[in-house]
């Protein structure tokens, strides 16, 4: 996971460096070149936003003991992103003012300026269409993930049901084994009781036999 986050960090650094350079160039350009640069920066900022979303998802998967460190790093990147957006916004405001001044103050070049404006609007429409397509792709990817998650959940439920049946069967076998052990224990107890009774009986018979022998010897001696 950390390797993915670091890869996103490298991509973030590359994109923000390019954006910073381009934002600094916007005031120095004019016409179609400036329009294309503004649209290009706007597109790259959208890529950075998507990149930050991916980084945010990665941070949520980080183990708790390491999450604070990655959260701090992500927070600093979001702050850097906010600064870039503010700088770009100021450049765009200045650019819009410049175009408006051209429209109001230069009648001779109004056709060319209107053509530039139309191109800018067309480029904006294309950019918005591209954003919608990216959003649609993200929605489709999210839907696919949801479907896969549902399938995984169904498989997990099926496995849990199967495991429950196995556990129930094992529990029934344990109960049956316990019952058999109880029967065996009662049989062994009965056998042990009979063994003890037999030993006592043998002891009594032996004692009687021994006493009989002693009495026979005694009476035999007296008769002499």
TrEMBL record:
It is a single-pass type IV membrane protein. SUPFAM superfamilies: SNARE fusion complex, t-snare proteins. GO terms for biological process: Golgi to vacuole transport; intra-Golgi vesicle-mediated transport; intracellular protein transport; macroautophagy; retrograde transport, endosome to Golgi; vesicle fusion with Golgi apparatus. The chain crosses the membrane at residues 200-221. Residues 124-191 form the T-SNARE coiled-coil homology domain. GO terms for cellular component: cytosol; endoplasmic reticulum membrane; ER to Golgi transport vesicle membrane; Golgi apparatus; late endosome membrane; SNARE complex. Its main location: membrane. InterPro entries: GOSR2/Membrin/Bos1, SNARE, T_SNARE_dom, v-SNARE_N_sf, Vesicle_trsprt_v-SNARE_N. Residues 34-177 form a coiled coil. One of its GO terms (molecular function) is SNARE binding. It comes from the Eukaryota. Keywords: Coiled coil, Membrane, Protein transport, Transmembrane, Transmembrane helix, Transport. It is found in: Endomembrane system. Belongs to the VTI1 family. This is t-SNARE coiled-coil homology domain-containing protein. It comes from Electrophorus electricus (Electric eel).
């Amino acid at each position: 996971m950390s390797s993915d986050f670091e890869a996103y960090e490298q991509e973030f650094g590359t994109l923000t460096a390019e954006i910073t350079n381009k934002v600094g160039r916007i005031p120095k350009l004019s016409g179609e070149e400036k329009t294309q640069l503004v649209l290009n920066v706007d597109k790259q900022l959208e890529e950075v936003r998507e990149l930050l979303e991916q980084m945010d998802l990665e941070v949520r998967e980080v183990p708790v003991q390491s999450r604070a460190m990655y959260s701090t790093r992500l927070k600093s990147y979001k702050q850097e992103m906010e600064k870039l957006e503010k700088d770009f916004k100021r450049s765009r405001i200045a650019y819009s003012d410049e175009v408006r001044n051209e429209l109001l103050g230069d009648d001779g070049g109004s056709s060319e300026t209107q053509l530039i404006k139309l191109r800018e609007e067309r480029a904006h429409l294309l950019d918005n269409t591209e954003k919608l397509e990216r959003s649609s792709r993200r929605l489709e990817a999210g839907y696919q993930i949801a479907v896969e998650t549902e399938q995984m959940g169904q498989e997990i439920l099926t496995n849990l049901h199967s495991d429950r049946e196995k556990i129930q069967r094992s529990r029934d076998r344990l109960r049956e084994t316990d019952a058999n052990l109880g029967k065996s224990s009662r049989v062994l107890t009965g056998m042990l009781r009979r063994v003890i009774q037999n030993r006592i009986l043998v002891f009594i018979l032996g004692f009687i036999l021994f006493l009989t022998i002693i009495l026979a010897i005694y009476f035999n001696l007296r008769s002499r």
